[in-house]
Structures are given as C-alpha cells and as structure tokens.
UniProtKB/TrEMBL annotation:
It comes from the Bacteria. Its cofactor is pyridoxal 5'-phosphate. This is Aspartate aminotransferase family protein. Gene3D superfamilies: Aspartate Aminotransferase, domain 1, Type I PLP-dependent aspartate aminotransferase-like (Major domain). The modification N6-(pyridoxal phosphate)lysine is found at K296. Signal peptide: none annotated. Pfam families: Pyridoxal_deC (PF00282). One of its GO terms (biological process) is carboxylic acid metabolic process. Keywords: Aminotransferase, Decarboxylase, Lyase, Plasmid, Pyridoxal phosphate, Transferase. InterPro entries: Aromatic_deC (IPR010977), PyrdxlP-dep_de-COase (IPR002129), PyrdxlP-dep_Trfase (IPR015424), PyrdxlP-dep_Trfase_major (IPR015421), PyrdxlP-dep_Trfase_small (IPR015422). The keyword Transferase applies.
Length: 469
C-alpha cells in the first residue's frame, strides 16, 4: 500500500479533526468573508505527484493556493443568482453522506438500502410543500437535471399519445412545446432530449409588467393545435421578477385539453411554506411534474434538487430511464430502484443532507427562513422604491428584488455601479436585462441573512452611487 495512504488511514481521526477545525473557523467567520473574487490569480498548475503527498500536506497546498480565494457564497450577503446557504444540519448530513458513501439505488436491499432514506426525505418534502403523496420523487444534482428528468417523462408521454415509444424509437416529427417565460435550463433540457428548443411556441405574458403566461393566449394556441397533445412548461417563480403562472387557471385547462403539465418551481415552490404567499402555488398539485431545487431555498449544500412526477406515470418513467439491457439489475417495476427512475445510475446519497435539515428544523423552521427572506426582499424593495437614485424594475413578489438606476439616461452606469458594488466584497448581486432595462438582481434565499445586512448593503449602494455620479 502507498505509504501516504497507509499513514492517512492510520491517522483518519487526526485528519478529520483538522478539517473539522478548519470548517468550524470558516463557518464561524463566513459573515466577514469576501463575496467576490477580488484577485483571481490562481498560481501555476500542480504536477501530478509521483507517490503523493499525503492529506495533511495537500491541505496546506489547498490552504495556500485556493482557500484564500474561496468566496463566502454560503453567507448572508451573497445575493447573486439564486444562491442558498447550508444549514448546520445539512452540513452534518452531507458529511455523513460522504463518510457512509452509499450508492443510492434500491430500497429492497440489492446490497444497500439507502434509497429508503431518499423515499422518506421525499415524503417529508411533500409535507413541507403541502403537496399530495401522488407524486413519486427523487434527488438529482440540480433543477436543470430535474427539468431534464421531468421533460424526459413528458416526452415519453407525448410519444405514447402519438402512438410511439420515443425512448426506443427516437424522436421524429415535431413536438409542440408551449411556454411563456421558461428558465434557460428548460430550453437546454429540450435540446438534450432531442425535442428541439426551436419547437417552442411562445405564449404571451399577462399584461402589466408580468412574466406569467397569458391564459387566454395559451388557450387560443391550444385550440390551434386541434387536439394534438403537447407539453406545457410553466413557471413557479421566474428568475427576474419571481412571477408565477396562474396554476388554478391552468388546472382548469388541463380538464379540457390533453397535455403534459410541467412546473419549474426551482425556488418559487417554497412559497408553499409561507402563509402569506402560499396562494402563489395554489393549484400546482394538479401538475404532472414539478422541479424543486434543494440547494436554493432548502439551504442544503450543492448538488441537490428533486423531481416530482405523478406516480401514475411510473411506467412511462421506467420506460424512459430503465437499464433495459441489464437483466441482472432486476425487473424495474417489481423492485423499486432509483436506477430505473432517473438519469444517473450510481449516485451519492444526496437525500441525507435534506433529511437532516428537514428533521432538524421542521415545518416551522423552514416557514421562518422563507418568511424572513420574503420580508428582507420586501424591505430592500421598499428602500429602493423610496430612494432618489434607484428604482424597481418590477414589484417585489416574493424573494427577489430586480432594480436599476432611477435615471434612464444613466443606463450605461448600471454595469459600473454593479462592478463597484461587487468589488467591495461585502455583497454580491448579478446583472440582468428586463423590460428594455439593464438591471441588477438581489435574491434572498439564505437562512443567515438578517435585517442589518439589508441596511448595510443599502448604505453601501448609496456610497457607490455618489462616487460614480
Ligand atoms: C436555478 C434555477 C434552475 C436551474 O437550477 P440548477 O440547480 O442551477 O440546475 C432552473 N429553474 C429555475 C427557475 C431556477 O431558478
């Protein structure tokens, strides 16, 4: 055995301890961590060592080379994209997922039963999101893979409606996809699935600064299809303005017309946890498939998302994802195994961090995280609304604030403003373009964010805007 491997193995307690110490220091000081890469000079590339260096020395190299440029993206003021943090319980679960290193596939004991943890976690999540148990779910690496998985089963459904088995025969002939404001990852999934992103029929959005699908235009387009089955991709929280399609109206259409209804509720689905905002997702339980990201508002470490697909489509799902030429893996419909229900075969026990966090903080814990983030977004939005230099590009509907400079003649300054703001290292936001305006997005999805962060960042914004005037 390699000397270093032997030595590491003999000293595993010591090694895990120094990692624990370092992790504790990091988490305890995450509020002070810079939120931007100020100096991106990753020094020269390492050579592959001949006989290795051992973990402790490698840690020293990491600490010298990479650790100083790690940004506090899990901290309270990283408001770019839609970036969640990691709760203590989820970190605990994540560490254990690594230590136990299961290959999560089966619940019936083909060498491993860790999938029962996954099934239990899905049940907890359905409860949290107040969704019925008629959904069968699983963990994938992110909402992109969840959209992919849901749309893959939608594709199989579409084929069946046209009398074909697309998983076997491949795609031929045009598929019709209707949508208004899809996330880029759904477009990517359509490309990957061979459905062709240019087969999208773009539906209008509702009038009055909205990104939600125009229900009447949707129905008119459905009528034009003359009974042809199609896939509808709807939004449960668009990224710019967190607008929601009207799920109740869509569920009424679903009674009249034949389509696969997919909802991308990557982060917006957590509106279900909030008494004041639950109405945004009303009716979503009638969807055929739903995407929910866990590394966003559930605040578990990357990579974690779930797909939820109605159990009635189990056969379609197996047709899509089965390992059909591997008889040793068993009959997919008899012995439930994730192996035949999603894209990956071997997979990490992704459910464990979510299981830990759901159990540790429960319904109330998450309700509070969600309600607080909504409150910070509204408060931040109010400060912007009342300011002389900034204005909102859309009302704050949930947890994201989309804004720009008040003076439309200063559109060129938006980029400079954001660059300067991010360069302070105190907060991170991302650029966007909305309603013919360059804008900035701040998304609130971290359990640590507090009122003082809102104040601090708004003060900083005012300092910067004075500098660039
Ligand atoms: C973030 C996001 C995605 C993509 O999720 P990943 O986890 O990055 O793969 C898809 N849809 C929506 C609405 C999102 O916010």
């Amino acid at each position: 055995m390699n000397e270093h491997l032997k030595n590491d193995s003999a000293n595993i307690g010591y090694l895990l301890n120094i990692i624990k110490e370092q992790g504790t220091d990091y988490l305890n000081s995450i509020e002070e961590r810079v939120t931007s890469v100020i100096n991106n000079n990753v020094s020269e590339k390492q050579e592959l060592p001949e006989s290795g260096l051992g973990t402790e020395e490698v840690l020293q190299i990491f600490n010298k080379k990479f650790e100083p440029i790690m940004v506090g993206s899990g901290g309270p003021r990283y408001w770019g994209f839609v970036t969640g943090g990691a709760t203590p319980a989820s970190v605990a679960g994540d560490w254990l997922a690594t230590v136990y290193d299961q290959n999560t596939q089966s619940v019936t004991g083909q060498g491993d039963i860790s999938a029962s943890i996954e099934i239990e976690t899905i049940q907890l999540l359905l409860k949290l999101l107040q969704l019925p148990e008629s959904f069968l779910g699983g963990f994938v690496s992110g909402a992109t893979m969840s959209n992919f998985t849901c749309l893959a089963v939608g594709r199989q459904w579409l084929g069946k409606e046209q009398g074909r088995d697309i998983a076997k025969e491949g795609i031929s002939g045009a598929a019709k996809i209707l949508t208004a404001t899809p996330h880029s990852s759904s477009i990517k999934s359509l490309s990957l699935l061979g459905l062709g992103s240019s087969n999208i029929i773009k539906i209008k959005t509702e009038e009055g600064n909205r990104e939600a699908i125009h229900i009447q235009d949707l129905e008119e387009n459905i009528l034009k299809l003359d009974g042809e089955p199609f896939i509808l991709i709807s939004s449960g929280g668009t990224v710019n303005t967190v607008d929601f399609d009207d799920f109740k109206a869509i569920s009424r259409l679903k009674e009249k017309y034949n389509f696969w209804w997919h909802i991308d509720a990557a982060f917006g689905g957590f509106a279900a946890c909030s008494e004041t905002h639950h109405h945004l997702v009303e009716g979503w339980e009638y969807a055929d498939s739903i995407t929910v990201d866990c590394h966003k508002w559930l605040n578990v470490p990357y990579e974690s998302a779930v797909f939820l697909i109605k159990e009635q489509y189990k056969i379609l799902q197996v047709e899509t994802f089965q390992n059909s030429n591997a008889p040793y893996l068993g009959d997919p419909l008899e012995n439930f195994s994730y192996l035949n229900f999603l894209p990956e075969n071997s997979r990490r026990l992704k459910a464990l961090p979510a299981w830990f966090s759901l159990m540790a903080y429960g319904k109330e814990g998450y309700q509070e995280i969600v309600d607080n983030n909504i409150a910070w977004a509204k408060q931040f939005g109010q400060l912007i609304e009342n300011s002389l230099d900034f204005k909102l590009l859309a009302p704050v509907r949930l947890n994201t604030v989309c804004f720009t400079l008040k003076d439309d003649a200063k559109q060129d300054a938006v980029g400079r403003f954001l660059e300067k703001l991010n360069n302070t290292g105190k907060v991170f936001m991302t650029p966007t373009f909305y309603n013919q305006h360059k804008g900035v997005r701040a998304a609130f999805v971290n359990w640590m964010t507090s009122e003082k962060d809102i104040r601090q960042v708004f003060d900083l914004m005012n300092e910067i805007i004075t500098e660039i005037k």
